[in-house]
Amino acid sequence: MASDPNPAPPGEAARPAEHYDVVVIGGGNAALCAANNARRAGRSVVVFEAAPKFYRGGNTRHTRNMRVAHDEPNEVLTGPYHEDEFWDDLLRVTGGQTDEELARYTIAQSKELWDFHTNQGVRFQPSLGGTLSLGRTNAFFLGGGRSMLNALYRTAEDLGVEIFYDAPVVALAIEDGAFLSATVRIGEREFVVRGGALVAAAGGFESNLEWLREYWGPPADNFLIRGTRHNRGSILRMLLDAGVQPIGDPTQCHAVAIDARSPKFDGGIVTRLDCVVFGIVVNRDAERFYDEGEDFWPKRYAIWGRLVAGQPDQIAYILIDQKSITSFMPSVYPPLKADTLAGLAQQLNLDPQKLERTVSEFNAAVRSGNFDSTVLDDCRTEGLTPPKSHWARRIDTPPFYAYPVRPGITFTYLGTRVNREARIIMEGGKPSANMFAAGEIMAGNVLGKGYLAGIGMTIGGVFGRIAGREAAANVRN
After folding, report:
1. CB environment 201-238: b (16+ within 10 A), e (fewer)
2. Angle of helix 29-40 relative to helix 144-159, nearest 10 degrees?
3. Whole-structure pTM value
4. pLDDT tens digits for the chain (477 residues)?
């Protein structure tokens, strides 16, 4: 079996070979795309996944879809999504903070991901319903991210990729910008594995709370990590310490508002709340702080984590009424419910008079129109700061509902600078001879800030393919 390529004596853990053409660190979408491509090129390939087998795949197992450019609909995608529209969407959410060459290249290459993943056994399904409305732009995985991962791993095993779980890489030997070897811990032993090329696909540092605290200070203690607990940034740190050129703002990340009752780690996509556009959001002081109807939810949902992070105690509350309770995909946690706003405020430990005043001022500012959550409708507020630009309806129909939310960090944007070949760039601007990066560890090249639903998987798939191909073509040692 690929997960036990070198049987050890009884009582000993399996051990890797002394040398591989391509060493892949990580176990998610980007890593497996790279490993499979390199193996198809005839290279010997090993994958070191730090997580146990059950938790393999990093944040990929929490995903549902990937964003892909395409010129015509197919059996799943409901209409065309041309490269220029994809670029305009990305430009809007990043505010221009992106490497345009790499971003446009990513978008162009995304057209090939459907066939590439299909050939690896991944299957797709029509878009899920709800507020994200991604049926035209995003391909949804049949069975979700875990099913997609299982297909990639089955393909890897069939190809002869060697895979080790519970196998953190604890050291890298790099000289003059070239990869020489990795030291991996398996069980109680450490092995030095030489490699002809390296693909770093081990994610960001979002589950390293100490590292987050370096940039965020005490507010980081109130963050929830909705992604994997295994992305601690150890490989990223090793690469940066070895002279790799960094990219990205360390305070920027894919951060969404998730249910405050979620676990500290690994809550996943089901903890996200998509009801912001149907109500209002208030902070601990029962005050609104941002336009809940600024734009379509797929283009704005990923700003709300940072918005909540900027509020007192990093806590906020989404308020809706009976009119909206069935309009969105609910959280795994039921909403708090009361027949009066004062009763709801008591459950939330908010000042009842302040909450009633905030809702009353909002209701008075609403200018009714033709409510339609699928378009930028004309339901808005007037004379209110902050405004609600679309989908504004009075909160006046009991019972009233609330969801408490905190910042939910999916992945961080500080990473390694790369070029179009996925080749890691060293300090001074020189490309590495044989080191490549894919996925979240280099996503900051494309995502300077903000997020577009499904683009994390796009970046991982595009640069995973490239990294595998280029690593196979640039084996040294």
Report:
1. bbbbbbbbbebbeeebeebbeebbbbbbebbbbbbbeb
2. 20
3. 0.91
4. 344 444 554 445 589 999 999 999 999 999 999 999 999 999 999 999 999 999 999 999 999 999 999 999 999 999 999 999 999 999 999 999 999 999 999 999 999 999 999 999 999 999 876 556 789 999 999 999 999 999 999 999 999 999 999 999 999 999 999 999 999 999 999 999 999 999 999 999 999 999 999 999 999 999 999 989 999 999 999 999 999 999 999 999 999 999 999 999 999 888 999 999 999 999 999 999 999 999 988 888 889 999 999 999 999 999 999 999 999 987 889 999 999 999 999 999 999 999 999 999 999 999 989 999 989 999 999 999 999 999 999 999 999 999 999 999 999 999 999 999 999 999 999 999 999 999 999 999 999 999 999 999 999 999 999 999 999 999 997
The SS3 call for residue 322 is: helix
**Omega into 386 within 30° of 0, i.e. cis?**
yes
Q: What domains are defined for the chain?
A: 19-250+413-473 (3.50.50.60), 255-408 (3.90.700.10)
Sign of CA dihedral 337, 338, 341, 346: negative
